[in-house]
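Protein modeling request. Please complete all fields; requests missing the sequence field cannot be processed.
Requester role: graduate student
Desired output: 3D structure, token encoding
Chains: 1
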Amino acid sequence: MNQKEILRNIIEIKRKNPYSEKKTIDQLRKETENTTALIPLPKSTKYKNVKVENIEAEWITCGDIDKNKVFLFMHGGGYYRGSVATSRAVVARISKEAKVKCLSIDYRLAPEYPFPAAIDDTFLTYKWLLNEGVDPQNIIVSGQSAGGGLCLALLLKIKENNFSQPLGAVALSPWTDLSQTGKTMVTNKKNDPIISKKYLDRFAKLYFPNSNNMSHLASPIIGELSGLPNMLIQVGSAETMLDDSKRFYEKAKKANVNAKFEIWEDMFHGWHSYAHILKDAEKAIISIGKFCRKLIN
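Delivered output (297 residues):
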């Protein structure tokens, strides 16, 4: 089977199980856990539970790594689902390519714990790493989807609390705008088999109920971006959330942030998870590795 057929098959499977407002949060959470449990971990993957204050977390490594370099990762899932387990395979592959030790966290989820629980947990974890003796210049922060938004919000939280910025950031299809104002919410509506504006509107309200008083720590696109570290942003061209990445990148460049932006042709939201069968997912993770190694060396 060639790559076009593999991509087509993945998208067809996604379309056969579309999002429905009738699905409960528990149903959607279980779907994510069950689906990602089928993704194989790369060889040499090792993971170990760790407590960060009251936060469950996991150290993940794969292959030869520099134990002094830490990649702090926040999983995706619309702030209401997802876990360390659902992103373990992606994080392990990044560890292998970037040659870093990864710390993946189970931040608190909505609706049980709405904003600012997730960003508070993320910032607490960053401070914990510093207290453990990790130099900020040995830390790269990252996340996917909602976690991508979290990693960018973390940079803003770090800045406003006068902490030292990490060495860099890697945002994968970040959710930067909880108001869903990007044009691709409409123009990519038929292309994206996973994420719709209706879906995001539902879970934005669960995470941040008072949308009339939006915070830059929930929608980092409205933040003041000067002084942020080197960053890589990756997004698929078929995503409804394409403009979340594109507009953030453009704003970051205007603020003189050294940002790199990659649009991956025809890729859907969450394509990195299919690196075991999809070449463009594997290549995207290789690109992440190169970006990280260049910063570190």
